[in-house]
Amino acid sequence: MESAKAKTHPQHTPSNALSATSALTADQQTLARETVPLRHHGRTVAAVFLLLVVANLVHSMVTNQNFQWPTVWHYLFFPDIMAGLGRTLILTVVSMTMAIVLGILLAACRLSGNKVLQAVAGAYLWFFRGTPLLIQLIFLYNLSALYPRLGIGVPFGGPELIGGSTNSVLSLWTVALVGLALHESAYMAEIVRGGLLSVPKHQTEAAAALGMNNLMAFRRIILPQALRVIVPPTGNQVIGMLKYSSLVSVIALPDLLYSAQMIYTQTFETIPLLIVVSFWYLLCTSILTVFQQRIERYYGRGVAGHQSTTPARGRILGLGVPRKRVRTTLSSTTAEEG
Fold first, then answer.
1. What b/e sequence results for 45-71 when a residue is b if at least 16 CB atoms lie within 10 Å of its CB, and e otherwise?
2. Which residue range is the domain that position 227 belongs to?
């Protein structure tokens, strides 16, 4: 049997391959030896064009005296600018923390089987996602026109237990923090709800079969899987909150933007001060982006294809993809990565 099989399926030895190669024509042998890389002329033209545009932009920024770079360096670490930057960071951290906590509660109401909780949470999301943040801040700042006094007491006109003037309760910091948190919590609620719904139901059933209670199943089974979906958009929302905090300048809270406005309204150096503000916003968002990527990488461990995120993105955009080289062999034409 073995001898018959050897006769029907002869092995390919180097001598057989050499004799087959000698049977090819000279042109076929040359084609078999050469490796021809694929050409991407469109990418080359686009890259050269973009390099020219960037070089021209950088040249104009350096040579244009209207940018007033000495003034920019003068105000870059100006005390008022640094104080405004600190207030902006405090606004971002505190309001985002409040928004995450409130968003989790709203998501729980949305997933609850109680129709009243679902309706109230849905109405909350409908209002705060349907109106601009700027209008909400201005409305909250002028709330004293509707309710001169805020307090806690017996409903429907009963005696007041504790309260005070609306203007004294809603200070500038309170209006800014509460306004940003209320608006952001509507988006965080949908992010958390989407993350929880992304975990298959059979995961909870399997945890119950192993004897886990609801809290343990949520902490060890559901939450780690949901965070893979929750963390990336939450990082984007934090970066967005950093930028949205500039809207508090309309209520005269001296954040980074308002501090710069107070300076250039007196010195009329508008462009240099706006460049300073843009620099600090870019620096802060860049740092937050690095932390976001590391957190995503941590929670993405064990996910298939997580390490190939960058090549996949490049494959979609048509950039950074290894070129294919076509090699003609004796039997067929194969493509291998170069």
1. eeeeeeeeeeeeeeeeeeeeeeebeeb
2. 77-153+162-301
